Amino acid sequence: MNISAFKLLLAGLAALVVSGIAANAAVTGLAENSGRREAYRLAVLRVKDEYHIPGVVAGVWVPGQAPWKIATGFADMGSRRLIRLDDLLPIRSVTKSYTVTLLLQLVRDKSVSLDDPIGKYVTGIPYGDLITLANLAGMESGVKSYSDTKEFLDGLVADPNRGWTPRQLVDLALPYSPLFFPAADYNYSNTNTTLLGMVVEQVTGQALADRFQKRIFNPLGLKRTSYPNDMDIPVPHAEPYFVDPATGRVEDCPAVNLSAFGAGGGMVTTLDDLHRWGKALGTGELIGRSLQKTRLLHSRPATSGPEYDRYGLGIGELKGWWGHTGEGLGYQAATFYDPRTGAVISVEINSSQPVNVATEIFKALAGVVHPPKAQGETAH
After folding, report:
1. Is residue 148 in some structural domain?
2. For the segment 310-325, what is each residue's pLDDT rounded down to a tens digit?
3. For the chain: N or C, fewer Cβ within 10 A?
4. Alpha helices, DSSP H only, in 257-313?
């Protein structure tokens, strides 16, 4: 999402100042291995203070250790309500990892093939006979991201409450597509995942929300995760904000209809559910070992969009961890699984700015799980 452009178009919003906010924090899991857990706490607070974030929930789950979780800052700057570990927050593009998982389940069931062209399911896509479902899942289709178009941003400004259909979102991108020949390059595009959501609905004959519920939420016990696809974010939820990282000023962010993000960004969840998802995503629990291997190996260097070292099929790799991040219009999130230790780190925050601070918090916490080696130290 082009946050900066949207922020400029939404001038005149009420402003608050975060500088000097007390670090009100609820922390769990400090009793065991308290030295490392204090390092977790300090890592979160350092990044939170550096970027002037209103509220953060984050957790670290390492096998053999008690889970560590923190909630610090405010869910609502107006009422000064503190953010809580059980607050609900939109997770934006982390949703892509759920949608691609549904697709891979259909591949496992032989209902679709990763080599199928998108033109088999959706008409009117440039190079639709050549762009495969794998190209879409791996961000190598060449279809422009609808969220980077002036038409989409103008539509949000004119009416943030407006409902969007997937086809309306896709059609915004088509006049600007293709950006390149399929599989010739990498370009992170929200249109890709929107198209995959349309494929899932067409093949299954079910609404995407129902498919999420039956094939992901229920099997994993994600009782507080939902795909509203409208204006109704479940409660209690943290309010969204923009942050100016240079000044520490926080501006109210208008609520936006989640259908504007759809299959690429419409999910809402809690920290505990995000942890459960991060583990399932990283291990391939819902798709099996063979498809998980395909998911990771079908990857290439991420040269645009969110920060990843590589991006596979609806999953990214960063510093040896595999997972997904999300950001835009008042919220940021990240969940990553470490195949070396089985650890999971999950982060949600209720603000957005040019830097994905949820990713920065993840990296800070990952640095505690795997401390930098001392000079001259060799790996064992």
Report:
1. yes
2. 999 999 999 999 999 9
3. C
4. 271-283, 289-297
